[in-house]
Design a protein that fits this description.
Length: about 190
């Protein structure tokens, strides 16, 4: 996959009138402006309140919700926490998409694993130079502190020196609350 894949998803989502953004490693690379590693999947995120709009928008797709690591059919029920992951498969061309539901109030994004961690809602996402929305790196990295894999560490190393002081400070505080022994804290002083 390349940014070409991101552009294809952005084109697919261009008529979706709710906020959405790339998540995971692609969000890190979109923030940097280049691919820093190979990606095995593609993830987008949207706010939980907009999940049924997405399902209606992507009528040609089959959806599965992930419950405790197992795929289940997703009918039209509104998914509540702890369910936060949806997988979609295009019925005719086989394209796949992972959708991550994010918590939000009218003014704040909330970290689903620790709802006391929040961020001003309007500063949760940015746009690449080509107009592709992505979840800001400090938010992406916070999700990666639980069960950090090698690719997560690669993402951290690729972006940490590009975070401004405000983003570093927020990330450090959030990690201290959520995973106070995490190895990334030493890099965020």
């Amino acid at each position: 996959m390349s940014f070409e894949q991101c552009h294809r998803i952005a084109s697919l989502m261009s008529g979706f009138n709710k906020m959405w953004f790339f998540a995971g490693g692609w969000a890190i690379d979109l923030s940097i402006g280049r691919e820093t590693r190979q990606h095995q999947d593609i993830e987008i995120a949207l706010f939980r309140k907009d999940q049924l709009y997405l399902k209606e928008y992507l009528k040609e797709w089959d959806f599965k919700k992930v419950v405790k690591g197992t795929f289940h059919s997703w009918n039209n029920e509104f998914l509540e926490l702890p369910i936060h992951e949806i997988h979609a498969l295009h019925k005719s061309n086989g394209d796949r998409l992972e959708v991550l539901l994010n918590e939000a109030t009218d003014s704040e994004w909330k970290f689903r694993r620790e709802l006391t961690i929040s961020h001003p809602l309007m500063s949760v996402w940015s746009y690449s130079d080509t107009g592709i929305p992505y979840l800001n790196p400090e938010i992406v990295l916070l999700y990666k502190v639980k069960n950090t894999r090698e690719k997560d560490h690669q993402d951290f190393i690729a972006i940490v020196d590009k975070l401004d002081d405000q983003r570093r400070k927020w990330l450090r505080g959030a990690i201290q609350l959520h995973e106070p022994e995490h190895k990334w804290l030493q890099y965020l002083t």
